[in-house]
From TrEMBL:
Residues 37-56 bind DNA. Keywords: DNA-binding, Transcription, Transcription regulation. The keyword DNA-binding applies. InterPro entries: DNA-bd_HTH_TetR-type_CS (IPR023772), Homeodomain-like_sf (IPR009057), HTH-type_TetR-like_transc_reg (IPR050109), HTH_TetR (IPR001647), Tet_transcr_reg_TetR-rel_C_sf (IPR036271), TetR_C (IPR011075). It comes from Nocardioides perillae. It comes from the Bacteria. Residues 14-74 form the HTH tetR-type domain. Pfam families: TetR_C_11 (PF16859), TetR_N (PF00440). This is AcrR family transcriptional regulator.
């Protein structure tokens, strides 16, 4: 009698994958990354731990996938000015000021500093694509002739999110659209734009 060929194990994909990612974020916000376990996520998702391990090698891969899916790509628009592009990307629905984004980052802040495996996965899965998109915003401004000749995009591109993270998680000031505008007008634009550029004025408070 010929033995039956082993059946392929079901993959975690589609709606079921999203259910697991949502469960991971729920557990992450409740207990933080350090105390999160695959068992806890499996229980919340009503799945077996083996099912999770068929898709993710461990909790670093699972959590970074969940964060990447929740935050999505940085959506950039060509509004015609650097100021307008930055405000469009960081303000409003889906922007940096979303309360869920603040909670998620707070839940992994310690792990970013102390867990090399998680930190590497977080930078690769969550941060890298956003920085690339943000750099594109500044490259577009440079192509328009907005930026000063000595503008250092490696420094300028991450300035806005870095300052917002500092205000939020170090100083305890929850970011809102008004804070984004203050940082753009008082820090980013004066550092980036040609001295005579009209958008360099720090007192503007409306989108371009």
């Amino acid at each position: 009698m010929t033995p039956e060929a082993p059946q392929p194990r079901p993959r975690v994909e589609g709606d079921r994958e999203q259910e697991v990612l949502d469960a991971a974020l729920d557990v992450l916000v409740e207990v933080g990354y350090d105390r999160l376990t695959m068992d806890a996520v499996a229980t919340r998702a009503r799945a077996s731990k083996a099912t999770l391990y068929r898709r993710w090698a461990g909790k670093a891969a699972l959590v970074t996938d969940a964060l990447a899916a929740a935050r999505g790509p940085l959506v950039t628009s060509d509004t015609g000015t650097l100021r307008g592009d930055l405000l469009a990307a960081f303000c409003g629905p889906g922007g940096f000021t979303e309360p869920s984004h603040v909670r998620h980052l707070a839940s992994v802040a310690t792990a970013i500093a102390t867990d090399p495996e998680f930190a590497a996965a977080f930078r690769e899965r969550v941060v890298a694509a956003k920085l690339l998109a943000l750099r594109g915003v500044f490259e577009r401004a440079a192509a328009r002739g907005e930026l000063r000749d000595d503008a250092d995009l490696d420094v300028l591109a991450p300035t806005l999110p870095a300052l917002l993270v500092h205000r939020c998680h170090v100083l305890g000031e929850l970011p809102d659209d008004a804070l984004v505008e203050r940082v753009v007008d008082q820090v980013v634009l004066p550092a980036a734009l040609r001295p005579a550029h009209p958008d360099r004025r720090p007192d503007r408070r409306t989108h371009s």
